[in-house]
Structure formats: structure tokens, C-alpha cells
Design goal:
Length: 546
């Protein structure tokens, strides 16, 4: 018997038994292979789950402790930035004035630099001046040496900036009555006339225009909750409860609502409307309701920021606000906008800042992909910065020549990465987000008036977030409507660099007597033009005065 035959196990002689044994071995092999595949799949699932948990942890840490800017955290990008900075610094020519002369001592250079401190006080020369003169008394003027009265020989001047807090005043309105004595004596119906006084913003209310403007500006421009204003007023000697202030804000919103509606009409005339939304909690039985605040930012020809309050995030809110609108809607990828643009002529544009944020958030799961995407997006934004001051046709031409090739390269890379990444990978979510919204994200390359991002409306959401942190919630739907109306006015004032308190004071003084046909003159941008023309006329008259 051969040695090889002796090493073989005892095998059955008949073919049927051999086939059964072979089938058993094959089945065992298949089970082992299936178990290995399951273990490999389980390991892959755990790896993906770990990546997603890391991603979620990074988002939470960034929310509480990290910077707001969407920048990569990898050290290689920081090194590249430092390298680019060093190369740029070496190539920059040195101005002779930047090099100190060898004869100048070090302490003299430091003294010169400190002299520039007052230049940072903007409008120092425009502040009103109160002059206080300090003199020696008659006894102090006597010279202690020869006892002769000393004579004034000059002055020593210095400046100080002081802040005088606001104060309350009572304005006593006395309206005199006039009657015809002759009619009274003859027994005829007496003709009584009462002298007119300026109409109050709130009917039979005690709050004057300046006080109402201060409360509205403090809450909706400076984000002070009403309970803090209550404490501030108490320190100034007159307490106004937060409930009373809330009622007054609602009354002001009622008064200016026609102006708010006019602003909304003009926003809907824009070629591009940018929109965004955020949660604005509202009190309800049991717990607060997650109501929503939306913002609609008009273009440069219709420069108004209009807020709208809804009880939820359903599409009915923007669909109602944007009814009859047929141009470009710039927004994030929220699915509710699909129902808004469906079946009409609205063009939906996307935001590359949102797309970049998706990639940056998933950076730790695929650093190399994140670096390549962000580098290409940085090129796109650099092109936009170059075309910022260009006209719409010129900007479109720049985008067609420079941005389109970058987008083509980016799309090609995204398609390759989509095939390489498993569908559950966090970076695959970011890649698919960009590819799925490619049509919306590239609208800006076919329309020079469309911005590359939606940052303008996102910035306006900060006022809602700050008020939400300070005031926590609104009490009811009327409170949400009041918030929307008054935030629209104060936000538009900031857009035009207008003092909201000055604007609101004049508006509340004049709006009760203003006809609807004259309402456009009180839009913030029109009011600013009138103020500038009035100031120019006053300056011209002052220059011509003898």
C-alpha cells in the first residue's frame, strides 16, 4: 500500500456516500464563507457607525466650542496656508516708510505708535461739546511768596468722553378750547373748537413716539428682552412692566403693518429672492411649539428684508408668501421648496456654502476628498470675489470663462468618488448632496445676478437666533406676527445703515397722518434718500449764509 493511500481518511467505497460527504463539505465551506462575509459586513457597519458618531460628535463640539466658519481642520491645509503666506510675504516689496531709521531710538518709535490711539474713536470731532472752565478762587489767586494777585497767563486743555444715560420726561398736552360768545348769548348752537395736537401713535396711549421707538429698537435691533428693559427703566426712575411693553410692540406692529406689506410686495418684484428659516419657539399647552420664522431678502433694486412667521415648517408658508412670484428663488436644499417651485416659472438656485459645509462636516471620514473639494470651491469663491464689483453681464462672462471649467472638474471628481465610497459613508452623503442638487447649484453660471451662496439670508437669521436666546419664545401667533413686522423694519434699517431708533421715531410721529398714497416715502431706503437731500440742502444754505 502506498504512503499517500495510508494518509487518506477512511472514505466510503460507494459513489453515493462520497457524493453526500462532498456535498456536506461544500455546504460547510459555504457557511464559513457566509459567516466571514457577515463578519466583514458587521465590521464595515461598525466602522461606518463609528464614522457617523465621530461626525456627530465633531458637529456638536463645533456648535458649542468651534469656529463658525466652514474651514478644514487638517494640519496639511494649515501648513499650506502658512506656506502661501510666507511666499506672498517674501514677494511683497518693502516700502521705505516701513523701515525705521537707524538713528531713531526704540522708545521714540513706541511713542509714535501710541499717538494713533485716538484715531480709532470714530466721529470724535462730531460729538456735541460741553465746555467746563475751572478757575482759582480769589484766595487761591494770591501769590504765597509776595502776596500779589496772580494774573491769568493761559489755559491747559484736555478732552474727556462722557456718556449721559437717557431719562424720562412727562409731556403735558394742554388743548385750549374756543367758543363764540355771541352765539352763546343769542341762544344759537355754540361753535366749540379745540386746538389740535399731534396724533398719538397709540390711540389714547401714554407712550410717545420716542419711547416706543426705543423699546422696538432695543428688542428687535439690539436683541434686549423686555424683562431687561424693565430693569433698565427702573434704574432710570420709571418702571414699565414687560407686559405693557409687549402690548405697545403689538400696537406699533399694527400701525406699521401697511408699510410692512408694501415692503413684502416690493421683495416679490425682485429678480432674485433669497430665503431661509429657523425655529422660533411659541408657547403652547404642555410644551413650546416649534414655530418657524422665515426671511425673504430682496435684490439690490428692491432692498428690503422681510420676515414671515408660520406655525410650522410646511411648504404652505413660503408658498403663500411667494404666490405669483415667477423669478429666481435662492435657498437651501429643504424639500418644502420643491412644492413652492413646482408647476410655476420659479427657478430654484442652490447655495455652495451649504454644499461646502456638508463636505467640511465629513472631513474626518475622508480628509483627502475634503481637501480636494474645498480647494476647488475656494477657487470658485475667489472668482466671485474678483467679479464682485462687475456688472451683471460682465460677472456672467467671468463665470462662463473661469467658473464653468472648475465646476466641470469638480463634477468629474465627484462621480469618481461616488463609485469608490460605499453608500452609507458620511462623505458619500456630502458627495450625493452636491450631485443631486447640481442643477440648482450651477444656476449662478447661467445668470449673473444670482449669488453663489445664500449667506445674505443666513446672516439675517442671526437676529432671530439672538432674540431666541434672550427672549426664549413668543407667547402666541400675534407675538410671532409682531416679531416678523418689527424685525423686518429694523433689519432693513441695518441693511441701509440707518439708525433704527431715529427712523422709527420719525415714522411713528408721522405715520398716523400719512395717506396710503404717500406710504412709499416712508420705506427705509426712501427715507434715507430724503434725509440725505435735506442735510445737503441745510449744508448748502449754511455755506451761503453771510
Amino acid at each position: 500500500m502506498h504512503t499517500a493511500e495510508m494518509d487518506l481518511p477512511n472514505l466510503p467505497e460507494d459513489s453515493a456516500s462520497l457524493k453526500a460527504m462532498l456535498r456536506s463539505l461544500l455546504a460547510e465551506r459555504d457557511r464559513e464563507k457566509q459567516r466571514a462575509d457577515e463578519q466583514r459586513k458587521r465590521a464595515d457597519d461598525l466602522h461606518i457607525q463609528n464614522l457617523r458618531l465621530q461626525l456627530e460628535l465633531a458637529r456638536v463640539k463645533k456648535m458649542y466650542y468651534g469656529p463658525r466658519a466652514d474651514r478644514l481642520n487638517s494640519t496639511s491645509e494649515l501648513a499650506q496656508v502658512l506656506l502661501d503666506f510666507g511666499q506672498e510675504l517674501e514677494q511683497r516689496p518693502i516700502h521705505p516708510d516701513d523701515v525705521p531709521h537707524a538713528s531713531e531710538p526704540e522708545y521714540e518709535l513706541r511713542r509714535v505708535k501710541r499717538r494713533k490711539g485716538r484715531r480709532s474713536l470714530a466721529n470724535f470731532e462730531n460729538l456735541p461739546v460741553t465746555t467746563q472752565v475751572y478757575e482759582l478762587s480769589a484766595e487761591e489767586r494770591i501769590c504765597p511768596t509776595c502776596e500779589v494777585v496772580r494774573q491769568e497767563s493761559g489755559t491747559e486743555e484736555s478732552w474727556q468722553i462722557e456718556y449721559i444715560p437717557g431719562h424720562f420726561e412727562r409731556i403735558h398736552h394742554v388743548r385750549k378750547k374756543y367758543a363764540c360768545v355771541k352765539c352763546e348769548r343769542s341762544g344759537e348752537a355754540p361753535q366749540m373748537t379745540v386746538a389740535a395736537r399731534p396724533e398719538s401713535p397709540i390711540d389714547k396711549g401714554m407712550a410717545g413716539p420716542g419711547l416706543l421707538a426705543y423699546i422696538v429698537a432695543s428688542k428687535f435691533a439690539d436683541y434686549l428682552p423686555l424683562y431687561r428693559l424693565e430693569d433698565i427703566f427702573a434704574r432710570q426712575g420709571f418702571e414699565i412692566s414687560r407686559a405693557t411693553q409687549a402690548v405697545w410692540c403689538g400696537d406699533v406692529a399694527d400701525l406699521v403693518e401697511p408699510l410692512y406689506r408694501r415692503m413684502a410686495e416690493r421683495v416679490r418684484q425682485s429678480h432674485v429672492v433669497a430665503t431661509d428659516d429657523t425655529i422660533l419657539p411659541m408657547l403652547s399647552p404642555g410644551k413650546v411649539k416649534k414655530a418657524r420664522m422665515w426671511v425673504y431678502v430682496g435684490d439690490s433694486d428692491h432692498p428690503y428684508n422681510v420676515f414671515d412667521f408660520t406655525l410650522d415648517r410646511g411648504r404652505d408658508g413660503p408658498k403663500q408668501f411667494l404666490k405669483d412670484y415667477t423669478q429666481v428663488l435662492l435657498a437651501d436644499a429643504y424639500g418644502g421648496y420643491d412644492g413652492v417651485v413646482a408647476g410655476n416659472a420659479i427657478t430654484r438656485a442652490g447655495c455652495w456654502s451649504h454644499a461646502r459645509r456638508k463636505v467640511v462636516d465629513a472631513e474626518k471620514t475622508a480628509p483627502e476628498i475634503a481637501r480636494e473639494v474645498v480647494a476647488l470651491l475656494r477657487t470658485l469663491f475667489a472668482i466671485e470675489n474678483q467679479a464682485k464689483e462687475a456688472s451683471v453681464p460682465e460677472r456672467l462672462e467671468i463665470r462662463q470663462k473661469q467658473s464653468v471649467p472648475v465646476l466641470a472638474e469638480l463634477r468629474q471628481k465627484l462621480l469618481v468618488w461616488k463609485e469608490q465610497l460605499i453608500p452609507q459613508h458620511p462623505m458619500a452623503d456630502a458627495v450625493n448632496y452636491i450631485l443631486n442638487h447640481w442643477a440648482e447649484l450651477t444656476v449662478f453660471c447661467s445668470d449673473g445676478a444670482v449669488p453663489i451662496d445664500n449667506n445674505a439670508s443666513e446672516r439675517e437669521m442671526k437676529r432671530v437666533v439672538l432674540n431666541r436666546k434672550n427672549s426664549l419664545f413668543v407667547g402666541n401667533p400675534r407675538g410671532g406676527r409682531t416679531f416678523a413686522i418689527l424685525a423686518s423694519l429694523t433689519s432693513t434699517c441695518r441693511r441701509h445703515q440707518i439708525d433704527p431708533q431715529l427712523y422709527l421715531t420719525q415714522l411713528l410721529m408721522n405715520l398716523p397722518q400719512t395717506k396710503l398714497s404717500e406710504l412709499d416715502a416712508w420705506l427705509p431706503d426712501q427715507w434715507k434718500l430724503q434725509q440725505a437731500a435735506r442735510n445737503e440742502a441745510l449744508n448748502r444754505a449754511a455755506s451761503l449764509a453771510p
